[in-house]
Specification:
globular
């Protein structure tokens, strides 16, 4: 069975617990793309363009190493060899009128039973850097959630140092998805975040309903929301600011400092 593209309507949740509390939640519209079926986007949906201009668009160069290779081919670098029936599902928000910013994208390697075999979490910061966390050893709990953890080694928020570790929590079925990332320091949960939503067929009617009628619940509004919350944290919570350090991890696959240095040569 080929898992089809989907559009999700749900919410994003962000709770900062330490050193000072700060919580917000927003309605969210996001998508699930089967990476082996991306070419179908150009033929099955009027408003959608895959590597082509359209109102809503998905571009290979916006993901992973930013190369002019399909997202599917790029993703294979970070997964173990796929079994014959395995598929990779990407949870993200495409470009709207050419604009989008995704702080995080999730890639789930699933089998025919919708069991998560591996995951890849792609993190983008506002400095133009990109980092990946390959999660090859997930455990399924009795509650049906898949969990994994790894050390934090990438600068994301100016209000957090590069310390601690992440706890990832995923759940997917035919009707919904839950994608959680919690930050821990010294065994204390410092930040709790998740993206969740209900699945809908990806067609013109659903795009009109969830994207055109609610344009500010898409990645078009991600950066303004980030800036608003940063201002609130800065002036209301008075938290210390941590400057962006030079990325040193090999899992930082786009280092904007190097990009600027190389462009300066020309």
């Amino acid at each position: 069975m080929i898992f089809k593209h989907k559009i999700y309507r749900g919410s994003v949740f962000h709770e900062r617990r330490s050193p000072k509390s700060h919580l917000f939640t927003y309605p969210s519209t996001f998508f699930r793309f089967n990476l082996s079926q991306l070419d179908s986007l150009n033929t099955n949906c009027t408003f959608f363009g895959y590597n082509k201009p359209n109102i809503i668009g998905l571009r290979d160069k916006d993901y992973l190493r930013g190369k002019n290779l399909s997202i599917y081919v790029q993703a294979l670098e970070f997964f173990s060899p796929l079994a014959s029936e395995d598929q990779i599902l990407l949870f993200t928000s495409p470009r709207y009128l050419g604009f989008a910013f995704n702080p995080v994208n999730f890639y789930l390697r699933i089998n025919q039973k919708l069991e998560i075999k591996e995951a890849l979490v792609e993190v983008n910061n506002t400095f133009g850097d990109r980092h990946v966390y390959p999660l090859k050893h997930l455990t399924k709990n009795a509650d049906g959630f898949y969990k994994a953890s790894c050390n934090k080694d990438f600068h994301v928020s100016p209000f957090n140092p590069i310390e601690g570790y992440y706890e990832f929590k995923f759940q997917i079925d035919t009707e919904s998805v839950f994608l959680g990332v919690d930050l821990y320091e010294k065994n204390q949960c410092k930040m709790k975040t998740y993206l969740k939503g209900k699945a809908n067929s990806l067609n013109e009617n659903k795009i009109i309903r969830y994207c055109f009628f609610h344009p500010f619940d898409t990645a078009l509004n991600s950066m303004p929301r980030i800036l608003i919350q940063a201002i609130l944290i800065l002036f209301k919570r008075n938290l210390p600011i941590y400057k962006r350090p030079e990325p040193i991890s090999e899992k930082t696959i786009i280092n904007n400092t190097k990009k600027k240095d190389s462009s300066a040569l020309f």
